[in-house]
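User: Here's a structure from my thesis project, written as structure tokens. My advisor, Dr. K., wants to see whether a designed sequence matches the one we expressed. Can you design one independently, without my sequence as a hint?
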């Protein structure tokens, strides 16, 4: 049975199909789940619900590409940033490619933002070598330099908002709601040499190079120029409790905040959980300095990191 928010997806299913996007069978007219026929919900993909009416996976009918649809406000900063990024050359961008902005036919204040389906960077396959992690950090910093050079501050940097192209790691694809499975039911399994296995998952090294990119600009700000930048307020973001300067009342520098958030993410979500990354601790400490003025700019952080890596054997 569809919940209230899922019924909205079912409502827009015909409209989306007219525009080349097909939702999972659960949201199509006349779908009868095998659950109603006596099967266990654990064995039926149609029984897997969406989580709210904001983000859902779909298939592009014309070529079978797996995409994600996100509902955003038509006049939001997120929509403005998406339109800007779509018009900007992709080289060194490290932001998710926005395929289309599709306004709702019956609610012009809301728009479907279409992007390719990618995998959260902290999910399997786990980082297995220092080189894999170095490549990840390099791209995170390059992406930050790109955003800041275009006067965009993300404001919600964390592992959930950095994704990777998993098309070569998981050639059979993964389920959007249950990403540890290929189809919502069967778990992904490490390669055994049989590349025809539909549930195959390869290491990052085997499938590399891996492309990482930023997503979710719902809390972001964009300024017309460096000179026009202003301090901001707002107590939000997934890592907000780790950064004392984030405030609903006391203005702060969103660009310096981004640098701190990268440091917090690297430390709390990776360095504390992987061995062999101690060489990054001094670098991460610089990103996490309590005084924002003592933190490096994004470009300086990238240069510091590249010098550090160049000294490695």
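Assistant: Designed independently from the structure alone:
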């Amino acid at each position: 049975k569809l919940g209230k928010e899922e019924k909205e997806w079912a409502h827009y299913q015909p409209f989306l199909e007219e525009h080349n996007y097909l939702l999972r069978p659960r949201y199509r007219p006349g779908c009868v789940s095998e659950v109603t026929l006596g099967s266990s919900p654990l064995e039926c993909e149609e029984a897997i619900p969406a989580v709210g009416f904001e983000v859902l996976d779909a298939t592009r009918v014309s070529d079978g590409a797996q995409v994600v649809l996100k509902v955003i406000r038509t006049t939001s900063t997120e929509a403005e940033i998406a339109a800007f990024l779509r018009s900007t050359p992709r080289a060194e961008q490290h932001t998710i490619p926005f395929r289309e902005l599709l306004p709702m036919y019956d609610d012009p204040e809301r728009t479907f933002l279409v992007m390719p389906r990618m995998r959260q960077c902290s999910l399997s396959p786990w980082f297995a070598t220092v080189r894999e992690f170095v490549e990840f950090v390099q791209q995170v910093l390059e992406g930050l330099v790109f955003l800041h050079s275009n006067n965009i501050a993300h404001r919600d940097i964390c592992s959930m908002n950095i994704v990777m192209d998993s098309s070569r790691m998981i050639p059979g694809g993964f389920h959007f709601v249950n990403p540890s499975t290929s189809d919502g039911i069967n778990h992904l399994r490490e390669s055994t040499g049989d590349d025809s296995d539909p549930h195959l998952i390869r290491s990052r090294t085997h499938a590399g190079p891996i492309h990482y990119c930023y997503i979710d600009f719902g809390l972001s700000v964009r300024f017309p120029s460096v000179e026009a930048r202003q301090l901001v307020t707002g107590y939000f973001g997934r890592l907000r409790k780790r950064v004392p300067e984030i405030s609903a009342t006391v203005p702060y520098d969103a660009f310096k905040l981004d640098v701190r958030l990268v440091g917090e993410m690297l430390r709390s979500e990776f360095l504390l959980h992987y061995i062999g990354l101690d060489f990054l601790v001094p670098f991460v400490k610089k990103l996490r300095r309590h005084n924002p003025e003592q933190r490096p700019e994004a470009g300086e952080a990238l240069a510091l990191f590249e010098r550090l890596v160049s000294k490695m054997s």
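When you compare it with your expressed construct, this may help: Helices lie at 4-18, 77-86, 130-149, 204-207, 254-271, 281-287, 298-310.
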